[in-house]
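S.,

Sequence below, as promised.
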Amino acid sequence: MATPAPNERLCRNFIDGEWVASRSARVVERRNPANLDEIVTLVPLSTPEEMRQAIEAARKAFPSWRDTPAPARGRILARAAQLMEQRKEELARLLTREEGKTFKDALGEVIKSVRVLEFMAGEGTRLAGETMPSDLPKNFAYTIKQPMGVVGLITPWNFPVSIPVWKIAPAIVAGNTVVLKPSTFAAQTAAKTLELLAEAGVPAGVINMVVGSGREAGGTLVEHPDVRAVSFTGSNAVGSGIYHTGAERMKKCQCEMGGKNPLVVLRDADLELAADATVFGAFASTGQRCTATSRVVIEEGVADRFVEMVVSRAKKWKVGNGLELDVDMGPAVNEQQIETDMRYIEMGKGVAKLVLGGERLAGGAWDRGYFVSPTIFDHVARDSSLAQDEIFGPVLSVVRVKDFDEAMDVANSVKYGLSSSLYSNDAARIFAFIDRIETGITHVNSPTVGGEAHLPFGGMKATGVGMREMGHGALDFFTEVKSVYIDYTGSRRETRAY
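The prediction came back faster than expected:
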């Protein structure tokens, strides 16, 4: 059984089943973004040598874990799901203090992670290949899925429980060993997640974690020759670099990156339903979701009424510390993110109509955090930065169009292709939208955010490269397929299949 993580602010690395203090003298403070007086975590910037030690621990643990029956691996994930369910509120409170999202959003993330663990636990009994008829008589042909070895996982701050879980769970149920490099902005939440997995019975060395900078710790992980595959979630700039490095080294890479998700509203839509979804999709989790609703594309005939409805709803949202249960939206994650939010807001004031918000909140408790008001721009040009760039904050752009065909054109006009939503009751338009929208996830009459544990998650175009995450297909990235031919004639054949 692994030693428990110390109950202190200093985040430690998890290597070969032990929580060990980094030897690095460089430590960064992670303060609560809703209350900068509170230091939540001290995060060491671990050295490349410490990352190499974690990779070596994973390499040594691989043969034994590979030979552990897949159903037994799955049962460990099932125990982890039970432990996380029991401690969901504790984990959600830590997540809120470290990352900033409201407690209800954090609790939803933890519950989603439990569902992923439950589903992936069952994959231990479904790690199946195929049997196929051979061209030759008395020849048995089939395929099997086998683990790759050591895999590197690099995860962001915005879902510090769910994203590590939905990468770790398929990786280890398939028989791989893992080295995780989480974001320094949510490192303690990731550590607590690994602690639950270790307590559930994951053997020493099968899961490891090293905290540190993306350049040093992450770079070492991506470049190391013993790491067979890398799964990354984060920015396009970093993801494209990882994909390039992986290609040079012949590594399997999976990169989930940006989004600029449209919610399309047609004139026949239930506007009340669409307005509720828009506000939730744009402002929940402070807009810091890759699936957040950042654009509304709406037919001109209903746009005035719809914008009034959205503004009316958004005005009622309370912004503050996410641990206060009546708060609807927490802070931006850090100073850099709120500066990005405000830069786009100031730029937008010169090119579109600001109808709500547009300010960094000040006064009282707001002075000690990174708070920005829910912000809505109307009459946004389809090719403007507001409509094209991923802001990753609570900034909603409304783009008006004349008809369905123009709505489709605008919805597909960005380089990203993660999530989308259509509000309409016209069956023909609904199915045309599904056929034509260039996103990996689409919703009809529900928000752009959200996804279920047993369905694939991922995007098209600049959003993602590599295989999908979650669902049955998640195992495809973490396994290699081997084709097997068993000749049971007992004699030499004159002909072979080619």
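The domain at 13-257 is CATH 3.40.605.10 (Aldehyde Dehydrogenase; Chain A, domain 1).

Coffee later?
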